[in-house]
Amino acid sequence: MAAAAAAAPGALGALQAGRARLVAACCARLGPGWRLPGSLTGPRVGPAMWARGWAPVAGGSAARRGYSSEVKTEDELRVRYLEEENRGIVVLGINRAYAKNSFSKNLVKMLSKAVDALKSDKKVRTIIVRSEVPGIFCAANLPVPTIAAIDGLALGGGLELALACDIRVAASSAKMGLVETKLAIIPGGGGTQRLPRAIGISLAKELIFSARVLDGQEAKAVGLISHVLEQNQEGDAAYRKALDLAREFLPQGPVAMRVAKLAINQGMEVDLVTGLAIEEACYAQTISTKDRLEGLLAFKEKRSPRYKGE
């Protein structure tokens, strides 16, 4: 008993050190210059440090993308920057009609390149992933909200891509499932990890073991998607809903949106106490921003805030 009591302080210290490392890793993902809250390691971040934390690395390879109505078209991926009232929304359209949007090395390479470019673009507020091929849906490690619009088939890799998004919406006629076991393989694009986190372990096992395909209503019932809609004549009901959601996100503070996403994602991977420490660290980064001051001023003046992501 005495030995156990003597060992307890050391064990507690190790636990606290482990939590501190987890929170430090979380802050590191935000960029150089970020610090933990004073209760953990040191002083909070000042305005100058904040600005340095979000700025892209000088001379980095991530190119800035201009805003225009022009559609950048590749063979398999289309990146579209919306304008006017939709400014800040980017649509990633997958366009492999001849292969029913199945993944190829070229498509994965282009998706990776697009994601890298979007990560450093502060003008981007929300990203919608959709299919450019009618009836088929086939991101991701992005700091801004991502929405998967499923208007057709999302099987195997297509559903895994949707699972990597923050929010999923689908038409009632959509079909989705992880069907790899039919081919004597398993989901290899994150499906075995993200599906249990989305709908629970037991049900995820049932769906993967059976290779079952769900329609939109069934997917909504098990919590796989957030919204289900009757398909329209144009075949883009899910995309239209995703666009409505993205418009709801646009007025919010862009820095707060990024930090909130990080806090939620990182917090879900740890225990509650560590998650609360991560939340505290993330909250601290919003205090000294210009956007926060603009939000307070706009509230006082009874007008809409004009956030700049600073």
Which short descriptors sum up this protein?
single chain, alpha/beta, 7-stranded mixed beta sheet, globular
Total beta strand runs = 10
Number of helices: 11
Distance between the termini: 55 Å
Provide mean pLDDT, rounded.
Answer: 78
Which structural class matches the secondary elements?
alpha/beta
Order of helices and strands: HHEEEHEEEHEEHHEHEHHHH
Enumerate the strands of the largest sheet in spatial order, edge to edge or round the barrel: 1-2-3-4-5-7-10
Write the layout of secondary structure elements.
Blueprint: H1 2-28, H2 47-54, E1 71-73, E2 77-81, E3 89-94, H3 105-119, E4 126-131, E5 146-150, E6 153-155, H4 157-163, E7 167-171, E8 175-177, H5 191-199, H6 201-210, E9 214-215, H7 216-221, E10 227-229, H8 237-249, H9 254-267, H10 272-287, H11 290-301
Helix pairs in contact: 1-10, 4-5, 5-6, 9-10
Question: How would you sum up this structure in a few lines?
Answer:
This protein has 310 residues and is α/β, with parallel strands linked by helices. It is built from eleven helices and ten strands. The strands form two sheets. A seven-stranded mixed β-sheet has the order 1-2-3-4-5-7-10, sandwiched between helices. It has a three-stranded mixed β-sheet with strand order 6-8-9.
